[in-house]
Design brief:
heterodimer, A: about 120 residues, mainly beta, 7-stranded mixed β-sheet, 4-stranded antiparallel β-sheet, 11 strands, about 50% strand, B: about 110 residues, about 0% helix, about 55% strand
Chain lengths: ~120, ~110
């Protein structure tokens, strides 16, 4: 099993450009999450999905959109990138958080720089 | 005020030492407490998961929660260079609510 994979690993954008980050998991997990990690801020939840076809806002959703057309994939889009979106983005998935001690499995991250 | 506070470090100790990592949290409604380990340029991985107060031991690692003082601790015995990583504490209200992460403590074990 590959677990959670993310593409691309690195990306440099200019202000105003758009891009899509792809997350894929092969564990048949229901829940998927997008986080951003910034120095001194910890991990902050951007958007999440509780199943195929569903999405919901997290703590810092502004400037991002997401889609979950297939259970195994969760896409994060930046329509018009801003320097404040320079960060490391992590995708995570979990089986069912309402069943006992849920574990979130994280991908390796995407390092995004917006100039 | 952040909901979970964590000293960013860095913390550097010699191999074999006992390491103590700590967090404080603000809301007494938090019920679940976690420690994640994150190696450089990697994603976090779950290390320990505890519910409510008390201790939980797993090999060289012990997680401790003191709800009366809103204090979370992780102890590492016989520390190894391979333990060098950033450790993030985390908490949540219920098993289905979002996870709130601390900012992480960078730990270095000197051979």
């Amino acid at each position: 099993n590959a677990g959670v994979t993310q593409t691309p690993k690195f990306r440099v954008l200019k202000t105003g450009q758009s891009m899509t980050l792809l997350c894929a998991q092969d564990m048949n997990h229901e829940y998927m999450y997008w986080y951003r990690q910034d120095p001194g801020m910890g991990l902050r939840l951007i958007h999440y999905s509780v199943g195929e076809g569903t999405t919901a806002k997290g703590e810092v959703p502004d400037g991002y959109n997401v889609s979950r057309l297939k259970k195994q994939n969760f896409l994060l889009g930046l329509e018009s990138a801003a320097p404040s979106q320079t960060s490391v983005y992590f995708c995570a998935s979990s089986y069912r958080p309402d069943e006992g001690t849920d574990t979130q499995y994280f991908g390796p991250g995407t390092r995004l720089t917006v100039l | 005020q952040k909901e979970v506070e964590q000293d960013p470090g860095p913390l550097s100790v010699p191999e074999g030492a006992i390491v103590s990592l700590n967090c404080t949290y603000s809301n007494s409604a938090f019920q679940y407490f976690m420690w994640y380990r994150q190696y450089s340029r990697k994603g976090p991985e779950l290390l320990m998961y505890t519910y409510s107060s008390g201790n939980k031991e797993d090999g060289r690692f012990t997680a401790q929660v003191d709800k009366s003082s809103k204090y979370i601790s992780l102890f590492i015995r016989d520390s190894q260079p391979s333990d060098s990583a950033t450790y993030l504490c985390a908490t949540r209200y219920s098993s289905a609510s979002k996870i709130i992460f601390g900012s992480g403590t960078r730990l270095s074990i000197r051979p």
